[in-house]
Amino acid sequence: MKRILIIGATSAIAAACARLWAKDGAEFFLVGRNTEKLEQVSNDLKVHGATAVSSYRLDATDIAAHSVMMKNCLTTLKQIDIALIAHGTLPDQKACENDVHLALQELSNNAISVIALLTLLGNQFEIQRQGSLAVISSVAGDRGRPSNYLYGTAKAAVSTFCEGLRARLFKVGVSVTTIKPGFVQTPMTKGLNLPPLLIAQPEKVALSIVKAVQNKTNTLYTPTFWALIMLIIKHLPNFIFKRINL
């Protein structure tokens, strides 16, 4: 039986992952901001086979509250076999360009809070000397595109932090998987003008995440075609990249 901590448990991708783990009788400690949605996810997991589900309300940007959440998690689970960090927001790039306070708030949501949680979790996994840590980053962090470079900056920070943490924890038998989804059909992307052929469903993305965690994959692009797309984008010369709208 796996003991699983999910931060941002009410997100569509996280909930889909949890449903897959629940089929194997996992025990969960779910963390999120919305108590009502946490209860809905909790009830759903019990129906799908979870052995036990505990919920905990947390605003991830409240850094001081992280350690209390961790203590509660360890009191409940005793040990963390899998931790998935899945919280975040999708900023309005134009609004962030015009409001420095909003820009910093979005960086806190998508980078600072994640790095703070990774620091705590990294230390816990180092003590355990076993387990799997998975973090949802984004393909947006691979290159600063004009349409979302504030979001991309946050995700680049998370991905780089994970790379260093992975090398550190590898030496004690702990895996760190950086998950880089492309466009996914979730409430966060609702209403955006996205190319239909590139939009994935959360359930498909979740399948690839669960498999990647099991296989201790370093970096997962999901769906996999995003690895090729981002390879091309990353290698576009600057004199071309500056002239196109991405």
Assembly status:
single chain
Spans of at least 5 consecutive residues with low confidence: none
- What is the CA-atom radius of gyration, in angstroms? 18 Å
By CATH, the superfamily comes out as NAD(P)-binding Rossmann-like Domain
The averaged pLDDT comes out at 96
Report strand order across the widest sheet. 3-2-1-4-5-6-7
Shape, please? globular
Approximately what portion of the residues adopt beta-strand conformation? 15-25%
Major beta-sheet overview: 7 strands, parallel
CATH architecture annotation name: 3-Layer(aba) Sandwich
Q: What is the number of strand segments?
A: 7
**What is the name of the CATH class?**
Alpha Beta
Helical percentage: 40-55%
Decide which structural class fits the backbone.
alpha/beta
Q: Helix and strand succession?
A: EHEHEHEHHEHEHEHH
The CATH topology turns out to be Rossmann fold
Total individual domains: 1
Could you walk me through the main structural features you see in this protein, from its secondary elements to its overall organization?
The chain is an alpha/beta fold and 246 residues long. The protein has a single domain, classed as Rossmann fold. The chain is 49% helix and 15% strand. The chain has 9 helices and 7 strands. The protein has helices at 12-22, 35-47, 66-77, 93-98, 100-128, 149-170, 202-214, 225-234, 238-241, and strands at residues 3-7, 27-32, 52-57, 82-85, 132-136, 175-181, 219-222. A 7-stranded parallel beta sheet has the order 3-2-1-4-5-6-7, sandwiched between helices.
